[in-house]
Design brief:
Helix content is about 45%, strand content about 15%. With about 300 residues, it is of the alpha+beta class. Strand 1 (about 30-35), helix 2 and strand 2 form a beta-alpha-beta unit.
Length: about 300
């Protein structure tokens, strides 16, 4: 990652609205899409190959914003759709969504999002074009893809500048509002603690929205600094974890907690592998009541690397 990339991410959200009429936009995502239909009976699988191609083309060719992003600066992400049921053109299944962020002055990439959406249901007819629209919900499938495209953008930009993803979270609100009026599953408020409405609320409603402050402090002030000062960068990561504790105290059922765990717990084991014992124990003490079922990995943090 270059310094230019940092500057682009930091400034892009601020410039988005003011420059949208004056600068050319560029496609933002480098997305790998895989559709797995092993759980579906039947020999005709061509529809799922077509679906995979359609989803891939949609995410990798649609220009979602007016932000200028160079080809080598596209956001790396992955969507893995597991089809569990298929009948009468209706697809039901799970969608695993992952996005990565390069760490400054290193070859390391960190996971920003690692989330499984278990409420996937949409109608798809083989060869049906996927059409992007800002003001209309063209289909349930495009609404789902739009939601995760903008979530990936919002979280990525938040990791480079404080609240840098705000324009994209505003767009997410519009997507959810339009989808909720359709009555389709996965969008309704209070329907599920981990559906798409709940994910949006986790980032935009107090108190769980402090996760956005964590995104900047953990990544820009923490990981990005570790190439020049491991102790200083790790200290910023440690301080950022207080946000997780705040969320747990105020909203223990927030999906923000499981999203952070699934994206970051393995990484935290590595970050604290050579940290001073007092620091490792402090992190363990903070995380243990929040993630009691993750005792093995938390013990690795507490223990640290073998000397």
């Amino acid at each position: 990652m270059t310094i230019v990339k940092n500057l682009l991410r930091s400034a892009a959200a601020v410039l988005l609205l003011s420059l949208s009429g004056f600068c050319a936009s560029a496609q933002e995502l480098l997305c790998t899409v895989e559709v797995n239909s092993d759980q579906v009976n039947g020999t005709y699988k061509q529809v799922f190959e077509t679906l995979q191609q359609a989803m891939s083309e949609y995410l990798n060719t649609t220009v979602f914003t007016n932000t200028q992003i160079a080809t080598n600066e596209k956001i790396e992400c992955r969507l893995f759709l597991t089809v569990k049921e298929y009948a009468d053109d209706i697809v039901k299944g799970d969608l695993q969504v992952q996005s990565l962020r390069p760490v400054y002055n290193s070859s390391y990439t960190t996971t920003l999002i690692n989330f499984k959406d278990t409420k996937i249901e949409f109608t798809y007819r083989e060869g049906e074009p996927l059409v992007y629209s800002v003001n209309n919900m063209e289909s349930q499938l495009t609404a789902i893809l739009n939601f995760y495209a903008f979530l990936i953008l919002a979280v990525d930009f938040d990791s480079f500048s404080p609240k840098g993803g705000e324009p994209y979270f505003e767009r997410l609100k519009q997507i959810v509002q339009m989808a909720q009026s359709s009555g389709e599953t996965g969008w309704k408020a209070f329907e599920d603690t981990k559906n798409r409405s709940a994910v949006l609320s986790a980032f935009t409603d107090a108190p769980a929205s402090v996760i956005r402050d964590l995104l900047y402090q953990y990544h820009r002030q923490g990981l990005d600094i570790m190439s020049t000062s491991v102790d200083k960068g790790r200290a910023a990561v440690t301080e950022s974890l207080e946000a997780v504790s705040k969320i747990y105290s105020a909203a223990p059922m927030s999906v923000a907690l499981s999203m952070f765990k699934d994206a970051k717990l393995d990484e935290l084991v590595n970050i604290y592998s050579k940290a001073p014992q007092r620091e490792r124990e402090a992190v363990y003490k903070l995380l243990e009541p929040i993630y009691p079922t993750e005792n093995q990995r938390l013990e690795e943090i507490k223990k640290g690397a073998e000397k």
